[in-house]
Amino acid sequence: xxxxxxxxxxxxxxxxxxxxxxxxxxxxxxxxxxxxxxxxxxxxxxxxxxxxxxxxxxxxxxxxxxxxxxxxxxxxxxxxxxxxxxxxxxxxxxxxxxxxxxxxxxxxxxxxxxxxxxxxxxxxxxxxxxxxxxxxxxxxxxxxxxxxxxxxxxxxxxxxxxxxxxxxxxxx
Length: 172
Fold this sequence. Notes:
The chain is of the alpha/beta class. Helix content is 40%, strand content 12%. The chain has helices at 9-22, 37-47, 60-63, 70-81, 111-125, 145-157, and strands spanning 28-31, 51-56, 85-88, 128-130, 169-171. The strands form 2 sheets. It has a 3-stranded parallel sheet with strand order 1-2-3, sandwiched between helices. A two-stranded parallel sheet has the order 4-5. Strand 4, helix 6 (145-157) and strand 5 (169-171) form a beta-alpha-beta unit. Helix 5 runs parallel beside helix 6. It is globular, with a radius of gyration of 16 Å.
């Protein structure tokens, strides 16, 4: 998880390459493939012979509307084509099934809820969470990296519970 607009991209790139080099045999990366941090990490994972599974926060056609630049959308599609598996998180049950209304709050569920559900999925099914962000949790946005960090903290606090699985380590 991380910022869409990455500062210090060269440092983030180097730290991610070091992470994958030190991680032992290739494994699986789960990623939303959003522009910025997600795409950077997915590219490095693929270069490191890891499998990448795309976990999309909503149906593909709707998710593609969130890419603000043509180059980012093209990069997303190229990465998606290299993914081992693609999972689309279903729309929250309170969202009108007319996909065009997902951006409008309806019964308390918004587009941000779909990103929050992506964060929950990643925290539940990931053992190590990589966070590429500024570290500011003072004003978490729904579904943003700060909220994902708080979800990770809650999961780590429960890690001694045999019923709890998911994140066991967070790297910032």
